[in-house]
Structure formats: structure tokens, C-alpha cells
Amino acid sequence: MSVASSTSTSQSHIPWWLWPNVLSLDAPLVAILCQAALARAHKVSLLPSVYAALFLTVWLIYVVDRVLDGFSVKKDARLSARHAFYRRHRSLFIFFVVPAGGIALLWLALAEIPEGIFWRGQALGFIVALYLLHFAARGHRLIYTVGNIMACMVGGVVLWALPVPVPFKILYGTVLVALLALAVGRRAGDSFRFLPKEVVCGYLFAIGCSLSVNFFTGDQLAHPFSPEVLMLALLCSLNCIAVSCYERAADTQPDPDGITQTWPHIARLYPMLLISLAGFVCWTLSRKMPLPLVLFCAAVLFSTILLGVVHHLAKRMSPELCHVLADVAIAVPVLAVVLAPEHLPKIASLLLEGVPFLE
């Protein structure tokens, strides 16, 4: 698939609809919507501070990632509007915005967040930090390798000492080993990656959205390997893959870690990936489950369809607009689940009475 080429908006007027993306507000908004939808699917009531902490955490991660990206691109490279914005205001974010956001997040974590969520967030935060190190330091071979080895050694010891459930320890430990293997076994060139960063990003994003819900359900629901978390991870991964495909035509210096560089034909396979996710959701729906969870699965299915529509129309739109619409494709169906009336499941249950996969 190819997208319409256009002059980057980084050097021209930024339209109003692109500002949430430029300011990195789109991903945090999607995160708290997914968290709210999962909470409603499992009948969990979350504190406002939990939503605020997730929003601030995701926002800081995306800001740091985009600031770090600015150090690895050439000065004459044509960049997307958001990357140009962060490179232009790099000092402001490094010395003021990120420290202030970190202090606010620390206060929320220590004063407002339940201790169990705090420790789980610490473990996940370490993995995210390792993810940023793995992909942000790609241009510095020695720092990249030594940093990953030291981080994995220290992180492995700390991880198993934290009061975190064993499934989370196994999951995070596996991620540590995988990232360490990538660091040590990395080829000299940047054209090869065993594990696409879009897949890692999508899974970590889904874990972050489900972490609090899993805690309040006593580690029984919305755990890292539950169907709803896995389908959300796949949906977020496909969103990231789509964005990589759209921006490949916009940037003169594409991300060497992007899936379009490691798997050049991924755009052609993208429709099959969407169909595979839709099939997984349909298989999940065929199993017996509570109706609120059915609504969440239906939202994921509808988001998958919308991503397919955006992919089909991408040739007629600018890369920036495609990126925004890909995020909207996830946000709108999930928002519909969050805002659905409380009595909707009862009405749907009456209408669908007798369908075997509902209870």
C-alpha cells in the first residue's frame, strides 16, 4: 500500500485536528477510554486518580519517546509534525515539562494510588523504560548493548523482589530475556529486528490499560493473557503498524526500527492481519461470557473494521490525517461502550435471549 505523498505539516500551518497528535494527547485519551471500557466490562469501579495516573504515565512515555527520536534524525530530514514540534521545543520538554509531569505522577503514585497498583506499575514502568532504551539508543552500539545488559541484570533481581503476582513476574521476565537477546544478538545493520517494536508497544499499552482492572478483580480477570487483553493488544499493535505504513511516505528519514523497514511488505499483509484479529474476536464471542464483556469485544471488532476502512482510503488522504483517523477508529467504538446506558446490557440480553454464548 502506498499513501498520498504530501508536504510535511512540520514546516507549515498545523490544522486544529492534528494538535492532539502533535501534543501527544491522543494515546493517553485512548488509554483511559480502554481502561474505562475494561472496567465496565468487568463491573469494576476505578478511582479518578487511577485514570489520571494512567493518562499522565502514557503521556510522559510518548513525550520522552518523541524527544529521544529527535536526537537520532538528521537536521535536514523532513519529519512529521509531531517530531518536528518536539525537536523544536526539546529544551522546554527536557528541563521543564517532563520533570514537572514526573513529579505530578510520583505524587499520584505515592498519595492516591493503591499500593498494589503502584508496585505493578513500577514493574511495568521498568519494562517500558527498557523498551525506550532498546529503540531510542539504536544509533549507539556500545551504550545500547551495555545498557540493556545492565538494565536486565538489575531489573531481573528487582523484579523478583517486588510484591507482584507470579504471572506478572513471568511475563515481565520473559520480556526482559527477549529484549536482552535482541540487544546482544543484534546485527550491525538496522535492517533487522526479530520482534517488531509495534507489537511490543501494542502489548505493553494493553497491559497498562488493564493493570488496574486486573488488580481490583483479584488477578482473576483482565490478566495479561486473557482474551480481552490479547485482542486489545492486537488492536493497538495493528494501529501502530498502520501508522508506520502511513508515515513511511511522509518522512525522508524513516524509523529504522519501524516494521516497514524490517518487513517491507507488511502493508500488503495488513488486510489479512485485520481479518485474523476479527476472526479471533468472533471466536472469543462464540464462548460463553457476560454481556458487558460481549459489548467490549464488539467494540474491538468494530474498531478493526474501521481500521480496514482507513487502510482502504489511505491513498486518498495525507499521512497525518490517516494517523488521526486510525486513532479515532479505536477511540470511537470504545467510547460508545463507556457511554452506553447502564440498562443497555439488560435490553440486549432480552433481545438476544437464547444465543448460546451469552449469559
TrEMBL record:
Q: Which UniProt keywords apply?
A: Membrane, Transmembrane, Transmembrane helix
Signal sequence span per UniProt? none
Coiled-coil blocks: none
Top-level division of the source organism's lineage: Bacteria
TM region positions: 50-71, 92-111, 117-135, 142-164, 170-188, 200-217, 229-246, 267-286, 292-314, 321-340
Q: What is this protein called?
A: UbiA prenyltransferase family protein
> What species is this protein from?
Roseimicrobium gellanilyticum
